[in-house]
Amino acid sequence: MVQGKIDEIHGWAAMGPGLEVEPWSYTPRPLGEHDVEIKIEHSGICGSDLHTIKEEWKGTMYPAIVGHEIVGRVITKGEKVLHLAEGDLVGVGAQVYGCLQGSCNACRRDLDPHCPEAVYTYNSTYADGQHAHGGYADAVRVHSNYAFKIPAGIDPVYAPPLMCAGVTVFAPMLRKGVKKGDRVGIVGIGGLGHLAIQYAHALGAEVVAFSHSPNKQKQCLELGANIFVNLANKDELDSVRGTLDYLFITSDSKANQYNDFITWMTFEGQIVVLALPEGQMSFGPREFVRTEVSITGSLIGGVNVLKKTLEFSAEHNILPIIERFPMAQINDALRHVNGGKALYRVVLDNIQN
């Protein structure tokens, strides 16, 4: 059996509910024959990280090293890993294991995040009972199926947000078949939304960006939006009612807004929820039934979709807008994101290690 090169992984862990993380180390699981050991160079901060360390979603297993937008170099691989080599630049997203068997109802449909054996990058447990820890660290070990080569056309520092935010918005667009001639709305122009604009534009759709921040109009148009709608402007909202084929909800919209969202859709329009609303979603059935609108959710993306996300991003030069912090300043970075000051994603640099 091949031995890993790192006996102890050093990271930044939440020790209890709150925003602060502190230095903490753990002994990684033995390197399996299908595993790779990755020296982390960059790690993105996702909103899910904050929800987890603050235990807003409940069930956090402390100490918890979060972070599921990971980019680094393979430094060791198991003897049965054939598609990766030491030195390869790879990314890891929100999942680190799925069975990927044809007999699995989820995996055979490229929905391996729903695999009964799925292990997520952090706050998750392997079959042997060991906890999974994420990218706020100097290294990570994962199954090689969930380590993805970063295409040569993507600068490594811009790759981390594609591993979660990118695939989160691109996966449902692929699944729904967004194409040229479709009219696609994007609600919330933040970490997810600014990427969603770029993907929808590259797929040939007419893109309508919705935001409460009129100062984002210029940037939305530069990213590929055809129309910008100020959510506080009734006339602008009225101008798009009944016109959208798809609507992607990428921000924590208030639950009572869904009644209004439905009126923006054309008949058989599809609303896709990517961010969790505050409270319970509520809408009256009349407009919902009259227009035959459907509302669905979407959870990240499987192995094949993540590969397509990276390939498509490289081909169409789709990159996140980021701010960078040294890993040593991680608590400053977390406060920056938590305070809503990030434009639009934050990436932690770990290359000095």
TrEMBL record:
Pfam name, any one: ADH_N
GO function term, MF aspect, one: oxidoreductase activity, acting on the CH-OH group of donors, NAD or NADP as acceptor
Keywords in alphabetical order: Metal-binding, Oxidoreductase, Zinc
Named cofactor requirement(s): Zn(2+)
Domain Enoyl reductase (ER): 16-348
Alphabetized SMART domains for the sequence: PKS_ER
UniProt xrefs under InterPro entries: ADH-like_C, ADH-like_N, ADH_Zn_CS, CAD-like, D-isomer_DH_CS1, ER, GroES-like_sf, NAD(P)-bd_dom_sf
PROSITE patterns in the record: ADH_ZINC, D_2_HYDROXYACID_DH_1
Domain of life: Eukaryota
Family, similarity comment: Belongs to the zinc-containing alcohol dehydrogenase family.
Name assigned to this protein: Enoyl reductase (ER) domain-containing protein
